[in-house]
Write a structure and sequence with these properties.
Elements (H helix, E strand, L loop, with lengths): L1 E4 L5 H14 L11 H8 L8 E5 L6 E9 L9 E8 L8 H15 L4 E7 L3 H9 L3 E12 L2 E11 L1
Parallel strand pairs: 4-5
Antiparallel strand pairs: 1-2, 2-3, 3-4, 5-7, 6-7
Length: about 160
């Protein structure tokens, strides 16, 4: 697998991976799939201090996962804190793709001068919770029943790592 900067040509694959999470998981609280056009607008917001990366299968060149750093808050006092997201195609989960993406996001966060990295993770997403614990993230709190999807309330676990 190759971890690299995402390109505009990756947006259809990134969108497909994201939409699989929208439809089949609580990894996101979007309720409806997004279009490639919507994701192109989203894509244009990344770069510089907030990179968007892709995991590519070496053999096929297929994008099998992606991750990004995003502003934690627009307020200037939070400029050294970033939030991150990672999504992996279901058929490539539990194969080290998430680990590789998270490692690269940690490297990029340090390179860009961030001090704190935050993840908001559904309490049902034990794979992501365990992934973050394995990288030294700690639970910073639980937001009870703040998400509603699949006809049920869902807690969000806040995970944090000081860089």
């Amino acid at each position: 697998m190759i971890i690299r900067k995402a390109q505009e040509s990756d947006v259809p694959a990134i969108t497909a991976i994201y939409n699989e999470a929208v439809i089949g998981s609580t990894a996101t609280f979007d309720l409806e799939p997004v279009s490639v056009e919507e994701r192109l607008v989203w894509f244009s917001k990344y770069g510089g201090r907030y990179p968007l990366i892709a995991a590519e299968a070496k053999a096929s060149g297929e994008v099998i996962g992606w991750g990004c750093l995003s502003p934690y808050s627009e307020k200037d006092g939070y400029r050294f804190t970033a939030e991150h997201s990672i999504y992996v195609s279901p058929q490539y989960q539990n194969q080290g793709v998430g680990k590789a993406l998270l490692q690269e996001l940690l490297n990029l966060a340090q390179q860009h001068g961030f001090h704190s990295l935050i993840a908001r993770i559904s309490s049902e997403n034990t794979a992501s919770l365990n992934l973050h614990l394995g990288f030294g993230f700690v639970q910073a709190g639980v937001l009870r029943e703040v998400g509603y999807k699949f006809d049920r309330w869902i807690d969000i676990v806040l995970m944090q790592k000081l860089l």
